[in-house]
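CO-FOLDING WORKSHEET

Operator: S.A.
Ligand of interest: flavin mononucleotide
Run index: 190
Mode: holo prediction, single chain
Checklist:
[x] sequence pasted
[x] SMILES validated
[ ] output reviewed
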Amino acid sequence: MDVLIISSSPNIDGLTAACAAAATEGVQLGGGKAEEIRLNDLGVDMCHACGNGWGTCQKEHECQEVDDFQSLHARIKQADAYVMVTPVYWGDLSESAKAFTDRLRRCEATRGEESSLSNKPVIGVAAAGGSGNGTLPCLTNMERWIQHVRARAYDLLAVRRWSRDYMLEAIRAASQTMVQEYLLSEEKNS
Ligand SMILES: Cc1cc2nc3c(=O)[nH]c(=O)nc-3n(C[C@H](O)[C@H](O)[C@H](O)COP(=O)(O)O)c2cc1C
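OUTPUT RECEIVED:
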């Protein structure tokens, strides 16, 4: 199972990074292949809402703004599952996560059931390293995005500074179980 861990914090050793590392460990423990993609290392600009609101995303399901989004979109199509880890900023996803999810949603939600993410499991993680407030609206927005691209919310997890240790365990366990379930169902279907 090819799992992309998509993280979206500028910090390389913060709470988000620890959550992504736990997801990587879980995927590997389950027997899957994990690759972390740090959105802040890429150049993925915000959606420009081309034309009168829709660009090529509506009919061609590709984004006409050319930057690192195109190669990332191609990689997304290949993967079997995703762990989306965002720091909580203002009770929402971080800016790099928003830019990426906005553009991907436009390309994939417009494909309906043919979405490249259709029925693929997603674990969403909201890392709230400040007050601890805002995880619920952040995860609500993530859940809505998952529904729009026709993926499956396997789990949605909130992590706070003081819940860090036991929630890292939960991320590890969720990622491991997601992979094991997938591999078992592949085995049954073969
Ligand atoms: C612009 C901004 C907004 C933030 N808003 C929140 C918030 O609403 N709730 C919260 O608990 N922490 C908030 N934080 C703190 C981040 O969630 C915290 O830095 C978190 O640990 C991010 O992950 P990191 O350790 O990878 O940076 C905010 C941080 C920034 C930079």
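REVIEW:
The longest strand covers residues 152-160.
The pocket of flavin mononucleotide is lined by residues 9, 11, 14-17, 87-91, 127-134 (CB under 6 Å).
[x] output reviewed
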